[in-house]
Design brief:
single chain, alpha/beta, TIM Barrel, 4 domains, eight-stranded parallel β-barrel, three-stranded antiparallel sheet, 17 helices, 40% helix, acyltransferase, acetyl-CoA C-acetyltransferase activity, amino-acid biosynthesis
């Protein structure tokens, strides 16, 4: 690999999915993987195959479908993990096994209960075994940010000698700060005799808000792979954000002089899809992909941008996928205009049946909403695809009565396994009443952990996007719904979550170790 190219390793489907409530179905993972491939992500970490049969199936499906990106599976430094990972990656055009073991004193003593020499021995054995299946093997020193430098040198040298082609230095707990972490990575590259035989990578967590800063500091010191996620999704405070890494390298090429192969025009659409599927809204002031990322309210700023864009904008909104004019369709728009705009948004409906279903939803929405925005179309297609998947419960009708000084009442009609069920309940508000009625109709009584409402677009006729998170028997599941009527959107999101709870497609939140 040339020294002026950076490998972008996306772990949204693995580490991102380890966010509580962010577990995805196989179909959802495939959808995101296709977007990452379209974005020209170099390596897609598709999952942790040993974690569950569902994760194995998802990694295998992505390996079979995605051909332009390397597909990676994670494994602990254990024979069954590596074998399961290799099996899942059999169909990959380009496959990578990513194996790891903890190297910090606190992890080796308190988690592994192993002496350093045994850890080194197991790491070498794992890399050697992985090389029996593929020439592309990545080795990670879990909690490298708190590991002893001399031990890191020894285990990394041994792993490279055993056949590791990528060496990952994770700041697993988000402990490091940029100048220190950069020095660690740079000194490892300089001190390890065979460091030239491997690509050095970093995987930084955001517990102190420094994941992107730490990653870029490591790049300055010679790291040539960055592990990151869309929207910075991930365990606890998240991971380094892919969009921020990519655009920092591109915008400040004068500092880094490094190129990525990412097609940045797909950043915003991918961000929206990940947010919709996981149920994790993007904060408005989030860099690059937040709704306010390119908004200017200050009169001085507005005046400057109108006179010369670069007075207050360091990159073009269009370059990362924000549309020049997102108001494109209305109730009089035809099927061809609808199909054309979906194509412009890189949304591919593979069958005529899927197109018809999406167009029907579009017409229904256009009757309720004057202008249809790109964000509306993306949500509409997601709902169409979700509606095509097998579901135990479906909302047929709802009626809510809420008056000042009176207890709100709701009546819902559902289809449960094809049979119509009706129930009525009261609540502290209209949404609470609807949720209570759904519980009565289904007999399902999960605990509501999160209820979040966001407007998809501007205006009083905007669709409301509702996210709920339910907990039942240790499982955290999110549901998602959108409608111009916020109560209906709420009911849809609750039923979506219930369907995931009872569906075998949705696996339990992964609790396995990871970098």
């Amino acid at each position: 690999m040339s020294d002026d190219h950076i490998i972008i390793f996306d772990t949204t489907l693995r580490d991102g999915e380890q966010s509580p409530g962010a577990s995805m179905t196989k179909a959802e993972k495939i959808r995101i993987a296709r977007m990452l491939e379209m974005m020209k992500v170099d390596v897609i970490e598709a999952g942790f195959p040993i974690a569950s049969p569902g994760d194995f199936d998802a990694v295998r499906a992505i390996a079979d479908i995605v051909k332009d990106s390397t597909i990676c599976g994670l494994s602990r430094a254990l024979d069954p993990d590596i074998e399961r990972c290799a099996e899942a990656l059999k169909g990959a055009n380009s496959g990578r096994i990513h194996t790891f073991i903890a190297t910090s004193p606190i992890h080796m003593k308190n988690k592994l209960n192993m002496e350093p020499e045994k850890v080194l021995e197991q790491a070498v054995r794992a890399v050697t075994k992985a090389r029996n299946y593929t020439d592309d093997v990545e080795f990670s020193c879990e909690d490298a940010g708190r590991s002893e430098f001399e031990f890191l040198c020894r285990i990394i040298e041994a792993a490279i000698n055993a056949g590791a082609t990528t060496i990952n230095i994770p700041d697993t707990v988000g402990y490091q700060i940029p100048h220190v972490f950069g020095d660690i990575v740079g000194n490892l590259i300089r001190e390890i005799p065979n460091s030239d035989k491997a690509v050095f990578s970093v995987h930084c967590h955001n517990d102190l808000g420094l994941a992107v800063g730490n990653s870029l500091a490591a790049v300055m010191q010679g790291a040539r792979q960055v592990e990151c996620t869309i929207n910075g999704l991930g365990e606890r405070a998240g991971n380094a954000s892919l969009e921020e890494i990519v655009m920092a390298l591109r915008t400040r090429k004068d500092v880094f002089n490094i190129e990525s192969g990412i097609d940045a025009r797909h950043i915003v659409p991918t961000s929206r899809i990940v947010s919709s599927i996981t149920g994790f809204p993007v904060q408005p002031n989030k860099a690059i992909v937040g709704a306010n990322a390119f908004a200017h309210e200050s009169g001085i700023h507005q005046d400057g941008v109108l006179k010369h864009r670069e007075t207050y904008e360091i990159m073009r909104a269009q370059d990362v996928g924000w549309a020049d004019n997102s108001i494109v369709l209305g109730k009089h728009s035809g099927r061809n205009a609808f199909r054309s705009r979906l194509a412009d948004l890189n949304i591919n409906l593979k069958t005529e049946e899927e197109l018809n279903a999406a167009f029907s939803r579009f017409k229904d929405l256009a009757d309720r909403k004057h202008d249809i925005f790109d964000e509306d179309l993306q949500m509409l297609v997601l709902q169409t695809r979700a509606g095509n998947e097998e579901a135990k419960y479906k909302l047929m009708a709802s009626h809510v009565c809420s008056e000042t000084g009176e207890t709100p009442m709701a009546t819902v009609t559902l289809k449960a396994d094809g049979k119509e069920v009706k129930a009525e309940a009261s609540g502290s508000g209209p949404v609470d009443a609807v949720f209570s009625a759904i519980k009565k109709a289904t007999g399902e009584t999960p605990a509501l952990q999160l209820y979040s409402v966001n407007a998809i677009t501007s205006g009083t006729d905007a669709q409301g996007e509702v996210t709920v998170r339910l907990e039942q028997e240790g499982r955290l599941i999110h549901g998602h719904g959108a409608h111009t009527d916020i109560v209906i959107a709420s009911a849809k999101s609750y039923i979506d979550a219930l369907n995931k709870l009872v569906s075998k497609q949705q696996r339990a939140h992964p609790q396995h170790d990871g970098v």
